[in-house]
Amino acid sequence: xxxxxxxxxxxxxxxxxxxxxxxxxxxxxxxxxxxxxxxxxxxxxxxxxxxxxxxxxxxxxxxxxxxxxxxxxxxxxxxxxxxxxxxxxxxxxxxxxxxxxxxxxxxxxxxxxxxxxxxxxxxxxxxxxxxxxxxxxxxxxxxxxxxxxxxxxxxxxxxxxxxxxxxxxxxxxxxxxxxxxxxxxxxxxxxxxxxxxxxxxx
Length: 202
Description:
This protein is mainly alpha-helical and 202 residues long. Helix 5 packs across helix 6 and helix 8 (161-179) runs antiparallel to helix 9 (184-200). Helix content is 65%, strand content 5%. The chain has a 3-stranded antiparallel beta sheet with strand order 1-3-2. It folds into 2 domains: 4-55, no CATH class; 79-200, no CATH class.
């Protein structure tokens, strides 16, 4: 196949369908698909004609325009990421204060319901203290703050969601640590874990 390239190769070189039709026209050769015998023949264009077409002003202007659009798109995406992050930074986060015993009881009940819904045995009252604190912090975050509503309604589908979600979780956990000193150690542990996971994912 030396001296000929496929339409896939043309697209990789920056050719659009309209450019192919306007500057190259019909393909120069057809060959059987080497991977799928029953597939339609592969259409091939002579590489010399392709290279000559890439020197045409129409092709060069298209590439320059595409690069400009790409730069503009990147700038727009960056702006949207900053705006979403600022939206989370400005968000007022309130955490109502309840008795720690109430939180522990409610979080245990929620954990039991979750386990039962999956057909598992659920006691949990003999779970180690660190596990009970994790359930408690999770219960507060999901049920007593704006975390879920903001994450699934305000951030969903937006450019920069991942970074904004990380900031949201960190801010909510900071607020929980402040309002619930009994669970502050666990809240801070989750906050550091969130930051580490974000860095690892970069």
